[in-house]
Request: fold
Amino acid sequence: MTAGKPSASAKVKPYDVSRLGPMPPYHGPPLGAHVSTVGGVAQAPARADLIGATAMQIFTKTPNQWKEPIINEVTASAFRAALATSGVQFTNSHDSYLINLASPDPTIRDRSIDSFSREVERCNILHLDALVSHPGNFINDRASGIARNADGITQALEKHSGPTRLLMEGTAGQGTVIGSTFEELADLLNQVPAALRARIGICLDTCHLYSAGYDLVNDFAGVWTRFDDILGLDRLGCLHLNDSKTPFGSHKDRHELIGDGSIGKGPFANIINEARLGHVPKVLETPKGDDMVTNDRKMLRMLRGFADGNG
Ligand SMILES: [Zn+2]
Ligand SMILES: [Zn+2]
Reply:
């Protein structure tokens, strides 16, 4: 993701949720957004409730710094208690932007493997359902980059086991980034030993898909059929719902509010009602705007309104 994260200094401003209108009924799989952990991870579930989210993505650290916080059992218990009293049914973390498990530079790669292992460890301590991770940049050679990325994943999963499922996220394909095609994601997963592969799934992001050349606008059904053929829909553990600021096939990763970008509302209404995606939690990473509530609540209200029977 490259947008939609609140800055570390962002605070929830006082506001009246009712002025944003009631949330339409929704009986589908968990549907939510990336939520701030300012003040501690235990603050996040209440923020999810404010926007009407039943799925919640967080960072377990500041994503653009190498500093690795330790989450102890006290913090984890407080988080799980807050979660239990919230409406959140699905939780995931997104890993740091600095991690590049595919790097040919041994120093960067060692640092990345250590940082990624700690991401896995924190998610397991918090009992998050999933950790979403961007494949790395191969820099020099694609095939060896994929092998390095798979080896980094293997090392981290061997070191830390627990309830959290790793979801490798499809990318937009900018520069030397790995994972912008279903075939390459399959290649990456297949290089992880089978016993560990059972703990790995896929996260797809609508903005990345569209930028990578998967035409959600004109070939909606075909995109999911191709995914099913190559990776299997049972592997799809999460969808990131973002419109795109850039045109089809741009290979850029620039998130936009749903309906304001090059994808438009249609494919998102289709996603909400697509039976083949009926098991998949869905998470917004769209721009937050002035506060951490208004835009997300509007987006979730719109998405719920797309559900058959609400129109
Ligand atoms: Zn993104
Ligand atoms: Zn994403």
